[in-house]
Design the sequence.
């Protein structure tokens, strides 16, 4: 276990990398709306403030894109290093989405460069069209990565396999995988783990590949998952919201510092987009996401709702299942489902599925014991997931209320604006505007960050929900602590340096140009 103790130190590094990369992804997806709003207002009013703001926001987006590409590459490389067993998923269900994601990345580059070099030289609608093309490819890239992650949460295409092991799970779509091959791989992983203490490296053994043969009959199966579709709409919208909220906070801060009404004017041009998205997100996309979790991930749903025992909650049941009389399944009911296995063992199932099965160390394990053991691991996370989930909801409510009030402070929204005016008399217009924008940003970030935490930790103890454990896929190589610390510091320095570069572009563009010239060795 010593190797795993060292490897576990890589997990916080992976988490840090993913969250830092998410900052750049949010700007990538949110700023196209801000820039397009500025261009539209510039074309309508001929007010040069909008054009200057569009140019500055474009500079921020360009720096952000470069940093997003760098951090994204490091994150993906690091995840493969930490989880080499994931090569099985990469070479099967994730292969087509990742190939398409490379094409999407090229599309992002082409449209962003075309937008930058033609801005003010082509008609406004052409520029907005180029920015829209950039956003489409960026969103497509995010969609594909989300779909790969969604397969880890809901392994669509494995049919009844997970439900055979865990009777409380549903079937996951058509059996696009060859079930005997999946079972053979799983047994090989478990037997290797039980005999030599490591497992992930056997997936990289060519002899194992020859023995199990081809496993996937539909390379597009990850793209057809209903859970993945709900995830894409929810996650991409969350990133767009954070990106736009960041711009709103920046312009509100500039107004707070200078008192210049120009920044309020700029804020008004894109604030309605943020308002609409923050209304749609919980009502439509969040609701669909919750229904998908309830349908496909019963242990995670029980953790989110704190259901140690089965509960009756008509409102929650209506939202989750569309049936207010249906009980919310708790861990007591899930444990009872494990009892359906009786005295069956892994070998009993394997004999039915795998031709020429030869029992290994795992063959004698009782399925009911395996089922109960994994439920116990999941239940231990219930208090944490439950608290994180409802804190996420509270943060989302704060963001929504704040953006409604913020909109009421700069637009005429009737009663809402009247209430905001009363508060402004006590706090001051500048103070309230910045406070509301800041609360919108912080609420959006907290809701998104905790949502991702619930998404990832909520599927444990499985790395691939219901099928594969972390210890079956994690690297067995021992990493020294100094190496981990050095890499973490380097990655963090790159990300923070990129954020500082974006700040310079936003507030001191000439200083940023000087830094670039100095770095290139060009004399002033």
Sequence:
């Amino acid at each position: 276990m010593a190797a795993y103790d060292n490897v576990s130190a890589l997990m916080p590094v992976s988490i840090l990398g993913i969250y830092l990369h998410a900052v750049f992804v949010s700007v990538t997806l949110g700023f196209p709306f801000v820039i397009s709003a500025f261009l539209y207002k510039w074309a309508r009013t001929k007010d040069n403030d909008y054009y200057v703001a569009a140019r500055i926001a474009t500079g921020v987006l360009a720096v952000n894109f470069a940093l997003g590409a760098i951090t994204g590459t490091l994150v993906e490389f690091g995840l493969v290093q930490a989880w080499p067993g994931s090569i099985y998923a990469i070479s099967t269900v994730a292969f087509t989405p990742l190939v398409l994601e490379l094409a999407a990345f090229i599309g992002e580059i082409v449209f962003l460069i075309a937008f930058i070099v033609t801005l003010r030289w082509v008609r406004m609608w052409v520029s907005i069209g180029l920015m829209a093309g950039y956003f489409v490819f960026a969103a497509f890239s995010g969609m594909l990565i989300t779909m790969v992650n969604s397969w880890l949460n809901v392994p669509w295409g494995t049919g009844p396999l997970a439900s055979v092991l865990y009777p409380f799970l549903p079937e996951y779509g058509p059996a696009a995988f060859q079930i005997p091959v999946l079972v053979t791989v799983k047994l090989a992983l478990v037997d290797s783990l039980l005999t030599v203490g490591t497992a992930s490296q056997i997936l990289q053994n060519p002899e194992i590949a020859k023995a199990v043969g081809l496993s996937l009959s539909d390379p597009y199966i990850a793209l057809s998952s209903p859970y993945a579709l709900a995830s894409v709409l929810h996650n991409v919208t969350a990133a767009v919201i954070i990106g736009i909220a960041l711009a709103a906070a920046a312009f509100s801060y500039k107004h707070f510092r200078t008192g210049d009404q120009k920044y309020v004017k700029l804020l008004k041009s894109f604030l309605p987009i943020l308002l609409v998205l923050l209304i749609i997100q919980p009502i439509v996309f969040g609701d669909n996401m919750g229904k998908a979790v309830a349908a496909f991930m019963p242990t995670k749903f029980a953790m989110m709702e704190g259901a140690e025992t089965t509960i009756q909650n008509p409102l929650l049941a209506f939202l989750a299942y569309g049936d207010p009389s249906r009980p919310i399944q708790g861990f007591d009911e899930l444990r009872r489902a494990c009892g359906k296995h009786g005295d069956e063992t892994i070998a009993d199932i394997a004999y039915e599925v795998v031709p020429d099965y030869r029992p290994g160390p795992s063959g004698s394990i009782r399925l009911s014991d395996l089922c109960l053991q994994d439920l116990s691991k999941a239940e231990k996370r219930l208090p944490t997931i439950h608290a994180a989930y409802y804190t996420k909801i509270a943060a989302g409510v704060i963001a929504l209320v704040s953006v409604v009030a913020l909109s009421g402070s700069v637009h005429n929204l009737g009663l809402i604006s009247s209430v905001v005016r009363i508060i402004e008399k006590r706090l001051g217009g500048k103070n309230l505007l910045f406070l509301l924008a800041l609360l919108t940003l912080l609420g959006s970030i907290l809701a998104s960050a905790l949502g991702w935490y619930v998404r990832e930790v909520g599927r444990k103890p499985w790395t691939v929900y219901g099928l594969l454990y972390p210890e079956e896929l994690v690297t067995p190589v021992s990493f020294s602590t100094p190496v981990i610390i050095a890499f973490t510091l380097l990655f963090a320095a790159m990300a923070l340096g990129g954020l500082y570069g974006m700040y310079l572009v936003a507030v001191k563009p000439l200083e940023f140009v000087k830094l670039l010239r100095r770095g290139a060795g060009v004399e002033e």
Summary: The longest strand covers residues 172-175. The mean pLDDT is 85.
